[in-house]
Design a protein that fits this description.
The protein has a seven-stranded parallel β-sheet with strand order 3-2-1-5-6-7-8, sandwiched between helices. The protein has a six-stranded parallel β-sheet with strand order 12-10-9-13-14-15, sandwiched between helices. Helix 1 packs across helix 14. The chain folds into two domains: 168 residues, Rossmann fold (3-Layer(aba) Sandwich); 176 residues, Rossmann fold. It is α/β, with parallel strands linked by helices. Helix 10 links the parallel strand 13 and strand 14.
């Protein structure tokens, strides 16, 4: 059990990790690492993607695990095969132990059962094993990962409930919320009001079908407000080629918008908050969301969020007094999201109240706060 009163070295393992990756797991990992560093601890990230030695900024400690030979983006089955054939899992486990010894690691955090290599999680003297379950993984990965973990973390009660529904005993798992990576100042009241009157509706997502972008665009074809969508491929996908196919579908739908369109390639992490800050409203049309990091990032710059009542989004955004946006029943469909956004933009008093509440709700997710919660959870 680590003594959190002394300086610790925490290693985060995530095969798909790369700086500026358009995915919540990567951004949340970077944010927690930043919070730990601000508390005086060392945090390093172990990735299967070759690290650029010249890359500074967020990733002061980025370590490549060269024993995984796979091209990214990769599908679940491709990664599973790459680490499971011809004794490769033993090679990777041995390399992880060597890295832990070399860097003096106290806590190893496997960020997901498959992509975070939690299914391998080699025992190593003096190293506490933590499984960070951002989503409930495949049984074939999750079962061995849970057997190896000293502590299991989840970012929300949504994950605990989903695991329980799948037959896992989640009663002893601990919640550590995702953190904001950057704390960008929100626009002042005058600027925010100008955005309400004429700013664009913005959407930011990776290319996953559960992000539901195509259906949102189809339902918004007659919206007479600028619509700006940024989409990007993550390093992981459920089926090979799924992200490219999703982009083609979304591009077709975007071509029929009255105003606006989509941009492929994502945004660097440090540009996400300022881009969301210049939106009148951010719509999160996901049909599944175990946390909702884009919603949180929008709220942190005072931009109200409109989202479905799925997963963790109602808890994150709030649905009563003090809410940072509007939660729409899933049964109302994507047209319900557009209707809620338009009604909000036509109501300056409510808009201003939601903007202020959004910002203040986000203050509980600063990286130092979440890092403190993490250290208490892994004791």
């Amino acid at each position: 059990m680590p003594d959190i009163s002394k300086s610790l070295t925490v290693a985060f393992v995530l095969a798909s990790y790369t700086r500026d990756a358009p995915a919540g797991m990567e951004r949340a990992t970077a944010a927690l690492a930043r919070g730990l560093r601000r508390h005086g601890h060392r945090a390093l990230v172990i990735t299967a993607i070759e690290a650029d030695a010249t890359d500074g900024g967020v990733d002061e400690d980025l370590v490549s695990l060269g024993s995984i030979e796979i091209a990214f983006p990769a599908a679940d089955d491709e990664l599973r095969e790459a680490i499971s054939t011809h004794g490769q899992d033993d090679v990777i486990a041995s390399d992880l132990r060597a890295l832990y010894r070399h860097h003096g690691v106290d806590i190893a955090v496997y960020v997901d059962a498959l992509w975070g290599l939690g299914r391998l999680a080699p025992a190593c003297d003096g190293v506490r094993t933590v499984l960070a379950m951002h989503v409930v993984g495949h049984d074939q990965d999750l079962t061995p990962a849970l057997e190896r973990a000293d502590v299991v973390l989840a970012p929300s009660t949504t994950v605990l409930d989903q695991a329980h529904d799948r037959g896992y005993d989640s009663t002893c798992w601990r919640i550590v919320r995702n953190a904001l990576l950057d704390d960008h100042a929100p626009p002042d009241d005058r600027h925010r009001e100008a955005l309400r009157q004429g700013g664009p509706v913005r959407v930011l997502a990776r290319l996953g079908p559960e992000k539901n972008i195509r259906a949102l665009l189809d339902a918004g074809r007659l919206v007479d407000r600028g619509i700006e969508v940024v989409l990007a491929e993550a390093g992981f996908e459920h089926i090979t080629g799924a992200q490219a196919a999703e982009y083609r579908h979304c591009a077709y739908s975007a071509a029929h918008l009255l105003m606006g369109g989509i941009r492929e390639g994502g945004l660097p992490w440090n540009q996400v908050p300022p881009w969301l800050a210049e939106a009148a409203v951010v719509i999160v049309p996901s049909t599944e969301e175990t946390f909702g990091l884009v919603a949180l990032e929008a709220m942190s710059v005072g931009t109200p969020v409109v989202a479905f009542d799925v997963g963790n989004l109602p808890n994150l955004i709030g649905s009563r007094t003090g809410a940072g946006g509007i939660v729409v029943p899933r049964a109302h469909g994507e047209s319900g999201l557009w209707g809620a956004a338009e009604a909000l933009l036509d109501d300056p008093v409510r808009y201003s109240a939601l903007s202020r509440a959004a910002y203040y709700r986000s203050r509980d997710y600063l990286p130092t706060t979440v890092a403190h919660d993490f250290l208490k959870a892994v004791r």
